Description:
alpha+beta; 2 domains; four-stranded mixed beta sheet
Amino acid sequence: MKGNTPKTFAMLMLASALLVTAGCGNSGSKDATPTEGSDDTKPITLSFFGADASPNWANMKDDIGQAIIEKTGVTINAEYAVSGGNDKISLMAASGEVPDMIYAKGDINKLVDAGNMVDLTDLIDKYGPNLKKVYGDYMDRLKYSNEDQAIYVLPTVGAVDQQTFDAGGGFEIQQRVLEELGYPEVKTLNDYEKVLKEYYAKHPTTDGQPTIPLTLDADDWRIMITVTNPAFQATGAPDDGEYYIDPETYEAQLHYKRPEEKEYFRWLNKMYNEGLLDKDAFVQKSDQYKSKIASGRVLGLIDQEWGYSDAENALKGEGKDDYTYAHFPVTLNKDIKDHSMQDTGFMSGWGIGITTSNPDPVRTIKFLDWLASDEGQVLRNWGVEGKQYNVEDGKRVIPADVQKRKNDDNASFTKESGVGLYNIFSAHYGDGVKDSTDNYYTTNFPDQIVAGYSDAEKKTLKAYGATTWLDLFPKADEFPVKPWGAAWNISVPSDSDYNVVFQKTQDIIRKSIPKAVLTPADQFDSVYDNMLAELDKAGAVKMEQEYTGYVQARVELWNGQNTK
């Protein structure tokens, strides 16, 4: 570690650091020997790197952060990637200069291969009763691979026993648009297009600015969320990142090769050529995208709510609830079901790990274990009693004024409270799970979700005979549970040629898809077919075969199922 531990702390922890270094070294992590940690509440600062952005992180000055420090003595000195941490993690793996804790997403393999990660198996066994309780029957899913059964991360992206009570993605349309048009049916791409076209024809300007029927955010990795992922969502496939996984054979194929997805992009091409798709959709930055949404002049989006919530909250803050967005499961035709809610089961793979630079792995695992306790989970999800919630007749409730701030000024609320910022740091139960007091661990349960809706949202939902947006989507029990979880969180060995070929295919896709969408209609087929040919020429077929092996290995590891 370089320059991340305060000098005042360095002397206090010297003895522990020497012991850990002797037990772990930097040549590998499986032989790490747990040491007895220092006093559990003695002040300690642990450095951390997160591969996702966290714009509301306030250096633990928030209410939850202060409560965590008071309860545990642990201060987290966090650094977050601004837009993806791949390069940063590659540099860490090459140099060995790693923080005490790390959330590396799909790049954990680079750190494992470089010997930077501590095997947490013994630490969890000796010092992690809460971790073992939360993960329960899923402990086997924490193992890195069939060949290497060490535990290098505590999964924190996947929540245990998660139930879904709301939908925050799909195809979005402003509430005011739907109201004026009499709440029309919105099930297919044609339906969606018709709504935007009809309203746009009536209202070419909004508050004195040109109305934008549909815009997208193709800035860096965001192109996957608003441009390419919707292609499989609208054509009846679940989210497996860049792949379509055959549910019978587990064979992986770049999802762009599916003929029906070509038709989705053809539809986007039609939207562009008819002037319904923002002409700047592929050149604007995320901030510009959000600014347009916050202006109220964007009628439709194809995104996840977390991608535009700041802009939507700005509209709410201005009293423009009817300018916010409804969510619909839009598909190519009525015979296709949106698979957004298909259950992945508990997903391991992405989470927080302890590195070999950590001066006190025992103290750190005890800290992570406390965060996984009932007390720690309630704090992380609900906030501080008396500030973010109260207990009335044995039930946790969010006061109306606090709920209004969460709805209308969420960024400021998050920075001040810390709600939503700490789940990345340890195991946690999902929505719908109750604790020993018969209260939900999280604030995402039906009554609370409905309480968080604006009047405009409630009006729209009532018009469609729904209580939540989830009511409009096909339910999880309409699909089988995916035995591989989600292919996007499967790690690939860092020394594999796969990574080089994958990057080549990504470069081709991110160049060709915008070109296909923006080309004259009579040239679409040529551009799209050339992309598919380029992908195979770059080695896509062999890459897909290799990834098939990783998917099959995941099924075997998680389910004991021989897929060969």
